[in-house]
Amino acid sequence: MKKSVLFFVFVVFAMVLASCNGAAPAGGEPEVCASDEFGCAKIPAGQTVKIGMGAPMTGDYASFGVDISQGAAIAVKDAGTVEGFAFELVAQDDQGAPEGGAAVANKLATDPTVVAIAGHIFSGATEAAIPVYDKVGIPMMSPSATNPPLTTLGSKVFNRVAFTDAVQGKFAADYLYSKLGFRKIAVLHDGGAYGQGLADVVRAEFTALGGEVVGYEAITPGETDYTATLSALAASAPEAVYFGGYVAEGVVLTNNMKQSGLENAVFFGCDGTFGAEFVAKTGANGEGAYAASLIPPESAAKLKFDADYLAAYGVGSGTLSPYTWSGYDSAAVLMAKVKEVAVLGSDGALYVPRGALVAAVRGTSGFTSITGDITCDAVGECNTAGPTFYIVKDGDWAQAEQ
Amino acid sequence: MEALRKKFSLTLPQNSIRIIRIIAALLLLALIIVRAMDVAAKSQFGADTWLRLSVSGLIIGGMYALIAIGYTLVYGILFMINFAHGEVMMIGTFGGYFVFEAFNAIQVSGADGNQLSFLNAYPVIAILLAFLAGMTIAALSGLFLEKFAYRPLRGAPRLVPLISAIGASIFLQNAGQLLFGPQRRQYINPVVLDRGIGWNLEVAGSTVVLTYTGIFSLILSAILMVGLYLLVQRTKLGRAMRAVAQDKKTAALMGINVDQIISRTFVISGALAGAAGVMWGIHNGLFNYYVGFLPGIKAFTAAVLGGIGNIPGAMLGGMFLGIVESVGPAVLGIDFQLKDVLAFTILILVLIFRPSGILGEALTEEKV
Questions:
Q1: I need a surface site. Which of A178, B45, B194, B299 has the fewest CB within 10 A?
Q2: Number of residue pairs across A and B with CB atoms under 8 Å?
């Protein structure tokens, strides 16, 4: 509450400031601003360049918002300054809901010093926020909005480092075919939008690669015995069983495979089956099972981040949500692009041409960060690294060979 | 007027209805056989697959049968469906789980001086106590269910206790969620009954595993069913139960305490459901407060299939349903996701062609 009051005061203050400036016609405004489609964001001397974020900071999903904003805050610390101006993260609570998303977007869009948005977090809130930013030309880079249609809305400003289910399925099929060398797999799903979506992509991609999908079945979620389904699949001797769904059914399937004649087949899950619960409840049966995760592979950048995160917040990264690394990356990309386009005016203020920034973010190419290579395509899908695959080794998840 | 009504009546003579039914049944049967032969000709599955499917069906069928007996016993005596019966099974599952958990925590020194848990040092005692605990607590919940949810409604129209049963079912599910949490728990079995391992049979060049837990469950459910059958047929209590089922008023006149017999019926059906619950936990491992819902519905189906109110019918219905669910889709060459569709289609067919169930309602005298 206090924060939002402060924010309101700040907005009023900023508006007064902006209008004052307007009265004295743009003193040191660089030429680029006049030709820019959306004009310039002007950050007066002594103020910070703001990166906005709409995230669920309270309520059931607060852990996501808090975690992602903490990741982004570390990116802000790491980013340093642009022409002597420091960056600042402004994370606003949108409750993860569409109404909240639109409200936060309107708030942030009226702040002239907000130049880019590292968000929003939930797909629903993001969808509601996109048109607002579209109008004023504030580029977005969402760490976690995975709903596939978001990039088909025709928005110029929306981009994401999150990978969609379609991307995950494509990478999984490729991993099964090329990395593990399987040619015959069975595909199972739980009939849900998420699970079946993944399974369909895997089936299509694996077939396209030249492999054979020898079984494709849906299971009824919530059951505790899938031996009949698995026994029927075993008759066609698949080398691996891909499953799109959640950990509850993944555990039962893994436990049932041995007694169904699939003792030599590999269980290959998705990010829905990744987690400590899978290992705890499959025990020895789970050894050698695969899953996908957002958690990026170990690297110097990740180790540094993990140490910084622990030092700053007292908990390990990844304990609140699997998105914190993506939160770092989306903020990092945006700030790098701000540095590219920002121009110091002759009046000592920093000018960020908004249209140029929108184009620069969409044009991101070969930006390497914690989650890997970030290169945006024409519609704003920026994750080219895809998910990281993990395997159960000695009773714990270990990064699989990439 | 009467002649007019007869002329335009849509009801066919009794005889032709029976003939149409028989023809329809034969046609359906022929269709199924043709389809099955067509699928068999493609020989997608070997003997190993069929064996695996049958074993899995028998094991689950045994558990369905035990729960179905509870529905049938209560129906036979009170002519009501105890929809909270699945939740009684859930309570039994938790009972056995906590016994195993407790014994797993106790450390004793084994024969060779090694420290090991009580669970693995004395597995037989642990298993016996787990079943005892599961069956007792389930029997008690059956008893209280009858006392608080059904007895006050004894004289009410038949729909009223049915609604009360659905209410009791929801209440018990929510109580389970509040008490034990929504997370899924996993049975810790003694090593001798480890899940997923068992006797390995070489069939058609592949290994078929007859799991210890599965065979254990199957044998135990058979023993319990035989025991129940003897109880109902050979003991004084059984005779009293049959008498109450036949005619409450006359039974009371003959000196039978009807209320007591009804309570005992609930205790017996609860105990069987509790045993099924512990078996479910031992064999399948994972469970939570919702574990009783699906088996409850399936067992109810099984009871109706076999002929509700008929004890051997419930056993047969349970086994039949288990087999149909696991072997049926393979026989007809359809997706396994359709196993429930298949099970309920069979239920509807049985209700159309033989409304009293496969074995008929043995306890029928007056049902209204």
A1: A178
A2: 89
